[in-house]
Every structure is written in structure tokens, then in C-alpha cells.
Give the backbone structure.
Amino acid sequence: MIRQAIKARCLNGVALASLMSALMVSAAGAHPKDMTLSTLHVAQEGLRIETVLPNAFVQSVMTSDSAQDFAEVVARGYQLHSESGPCPMVGTPRAWQLHDIDARRYVVDYACLESVPKELTLRYMLPSQGQPPDEAHENFMSIPILKQEGSLILSLTQNETVVPIARAAAESSLALPLKLNQTKIATPRPLDFLWLGAVHILSGLDHVLFLLALLLIGLSGTALLAVVSAFTVGHSVTLGISALGIYSPLAWVAESIIAASIIYLGLENLYALLRKDSNRTEQERRTLTRRRWAVAGLFGLVHGFGFSTVLRDMGLPEGAMVSSLLGFNLGVEIGQLLIVATLVPLLAWLWRLMGFRSVSISLSIVLLLLGSWWLVERTLFM
């Protein structure tokens, strides 16, 4: 038992060190061709394997231009057998492009005749798919259901292992999830990206406060529609550019500019609000509205890069990249409309209760201070 524990810890250390090395190399634009990271999850309804493959390895093995076809190659790269026979693939393999680390993520589900097999024999055949077979390729597999032996290395020459699922489940203090979608592997469908987009903007305080700052000078209905539309167009453009891997700035740069956008609006609000309305001509009011429209569109471009962070981390499904991106963007718009629909009546009530200028000046000062803090935090501590 002591020897097994030492071996397991060594394997965990090797896997962690390899992963850290991969991430460091990926920052320079490369990714080891011969390394695969995978995870085997067990639920009462079946098995799920997630595999992260470097693009260089994918290109060396792929025999067609279809990402979905290669997802099926990955699915066949694992042969699973229980005591009752083969455990075939169920459903459709899913593929994501992970632009940040120049790799792809594949998720494949399998089902055995038993709800939970006693022992699972797993054979890793993916290195043999290439011509010639990749003898240097190694798969660092994590099996969370196992305690001490929770990691192993599979290769072309050492490609088989037996997983004592029933014993591990009995020894584990955690109950097996009923459904595969209850595992920790994120496997959203295209429609799920709509919900993800809405949640992302609603939970992003800096995006919410930017929208609040846009409203504090008291826009008319037409001007409000124009400003929100400009912000929508701006962030939609860069969200697509970044999520599709065309261009993405460094995360801290985008986040810092988002903080600077809040500072700018706070200062512009104070400049406009501290002047007497009676001294402002109608032409100056129109100029202020047009400038607010331009600012919303310009900074919307930067906020789009901020929105795309979650998509870059997760990756878009290769078989449904456009529909997933549109779903996420639509979710962002729904969340944005909910924010505006909440803020406008709330501000109107506060303006009637405490006065337009006092409320807007106070809130602009708060936004200015918060934006300044975020700018310092994101430039010096990220």
C-alpha cells in the first residue's frame, strides 16, 4: 500500500509538472505534440471521458477535414470493456477549440450493460491511429473515483489498465452522480451558451457599472436606445473576433481598459453634471449625446474582449461554433436588457426622491473611485 501511494503521488507530480510545462510553453505559442490530458468520470448512467489534445497531435492523426469526424476517431481511441462485454459510445462526441493553449477538447460518453461495472478494462488506442504510430505520445489520465491510484500514464506500449469501479465506489465517501451531466466536466450544448451569456454579464459588476455610468446624464428614450445599441454592436464585433480565435488581447490589458472606461465615464458625467443646465445650449446637449453614443460603441469593443474570456477558457464546440457564439451573444444582450430595464426605473425613482444632480453626481463619484481601484488592481496585481 505504501509503495502504491508513493507511485500514485509520483504520477500525480509528473502529470502536474507536465501540465505546468505545457501551459508555460503555450504562452509562447506552442504546445507539446506528444502530450494528452484526459479524465475518466463515472456516473450511474455511464462513463464520460474528456481528452485535451494539442493541435499538432490532432493534425498528425486527422485523416479528414471534418472536426466531427475526428471527434469520432477520438471516441474510438478508447476501447472500454466491462465484465459483460464492450461499452459502446452513446450520443455524439463533442469537440471544442481551446485557442488559449492551441489545443482541442473532446468529450465522449460510453455506456456498459451494467449500470456500474465491477471492473472496467480501458485500452488507449489513439497513438496507433497515426501513420506511423506515435511512440512518444503519452496520455496522463485522471480518474477522480480512485483515491490513491487516481492518475496513470497511457502510451502506445502501455495502453491498457483495469479500473476497479465497484470497489472504488464502495470505498469512496462521495456517491456516484446519477447523470453524466452532473459530472464536473463542462459539456454545454449550443443552447446552453445563451444562458451562459446572460449569467456572465449579470455577474460581471464592471459591465453592470459601465451601463449604469452611461445612464447617469439622463438620456431621452431615443438617445438611450442609440447608446445601448452602439454598446451592443461594439461588444458583438470583438466578442466574435476573440471567440473565433482571430485576435485576443492579453486579459489584463482588456480588463484594465474596461476599468479605464468606467473612470472616463465618471469624469465625463461629473463634467456634464457640475455645469448648470440653464447654461447648456441645445447644441451642447446634442453633442453630449452623440459623444455618449460614440463612447458606448468604442468601449463596447473592449468590453467584448472581456465577455469573450469565458468562451476562450471553455472553447466553442467545433461542430456548432457559430450557433454557440450567437447564443452566447444573445444571452449577453438579454442580460444587458435586464440590467437597463432595472436601472432606468430605479434611477428615475431616485431622481424624483433625492434630485437628479445629487444622485447622478454621487453615483459618478462612486463609479470613479471603483474604476480607479480596479485599474490599479488590474495593472499592478494581475
